[in-house]
Task: inverse folding
């Protein structure tokens, strides 16, 4: 029975990693191919949902100006980084159960599992939670301490010199098998998200932040996701950025939905409902990494809201910023 459960856990982890890669790493092999020069500035060719309509309600316009296209290389996940990661999550090399084509899976018993994807630059760890009793904590660790702990953990594992900023935190409870947002009093865990920043601008990721962690209220790490940072950054070119007025004339096909966040009903749904009209109230600058071309390009991060059958949702989108 234990062996069968162990095999199931490994299969679930691999399936989960495949879903993660499908979500966070769209296939960019044909990015910018068969496009004119003007088209490649606004089309990112990503297999992501698009809104049907945008209602622009922006008070602060930061569009226009100039930005840089940067040549970048993915940092390599070497054996040292992998060893530091395993030590951090309480696993070791002896827990390895498979290692194929740069994708290594680790498992200890039926509860603890991790994988390292050297091809796409990911670290992932999960403690399998089956019942609420696993989350009981006799003491509560301050959220600020957990945020600092996460930043130091990522720096230690990746060795990055990039700035890491905490983007926020959410209190969570489990309605098996999913985590849903709740208030601080009912929370069983805390989810913290962070991103890498270059010159004060975040590196955009599909599905949320590049770095995510879930801690119990007592500070035990039960989930960790890290996307490896860049190895080098060099300026390639300076480009003009499109204005808000020109953005308003773009086709909806050039706006990409990165993340939708809703209440408990939305979190327990299958997430298949299409996004209709997005009321936009925020426009900021960011960067998108093209792994095929090994460069980051300027993008606009667009935030707003929409209303679905499951209730209101917060929407984060992006579009290419080059004029």
Result:
């Amino acid at each position: 029975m234990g062996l069968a459960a162990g095999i199931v856990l490994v299969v679930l982890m691999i399936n989960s990693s495949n879903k993660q890669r499908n979500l966070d790493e769209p296939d960019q092999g044909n990015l910018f191919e068969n496009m004119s020069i003007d088209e490649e500035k606004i089309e990112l060719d990503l297999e992501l949902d698009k809104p049907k309509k945008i209602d622009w309600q922006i008070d602060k316009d930061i569009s226009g100006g100039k930005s840089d296209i940067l040549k970048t290389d993915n940092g390599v996940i070497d054996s040292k980084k992998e060893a530091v990661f395993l030590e951090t999550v309480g696993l070791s090399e002896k827990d390895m159960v498979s290692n194929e084509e740069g994708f290594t899976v680790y498992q200890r018993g039926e509860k603890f599992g991790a994988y390292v994807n050297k091809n796409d630059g990911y670290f992932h760890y999960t403690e399998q939670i089956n019942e609420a009793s696993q989350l009981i904590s006799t003491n509560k660790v301050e959220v600020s301490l957990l945020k600092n702990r996460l930043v130091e953990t990522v720096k230690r594992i990746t060795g990055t010199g990039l700035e890491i900023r905490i983007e926020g935190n959410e209190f969570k409870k489990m309605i098996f098998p999913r985590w849903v947002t709740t208030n601080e009093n009912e929370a069983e865990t805390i989810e913290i998200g962070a991103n890498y920043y270059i010159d004060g601008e975040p590196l955009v990721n599909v599905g949320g932040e590049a770095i995510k962690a879930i801690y119990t209220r007592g500070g035990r790490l039960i989930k960790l996701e890290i996307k490896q940072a860049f190895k080098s950054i060099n300026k390639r070119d300076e480009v003009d950025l499109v204005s808000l007025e020109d953005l308003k004339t773009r086709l909806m096909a050039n706006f990409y939905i990165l993340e939708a966040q809703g209440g408990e009903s939305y979190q327990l749904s299958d997430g298949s409902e299409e996004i209709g009209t997005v009321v936009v109230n925020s426009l900021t600058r960011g960067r998108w990494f093209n792994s095929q071309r090994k460069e980051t390009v300027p993008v606009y991060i667009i935030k707003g809201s929409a209303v679905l059958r499951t209730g209101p949702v917060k929407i984060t989108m992006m579009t290419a910023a080059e004029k």
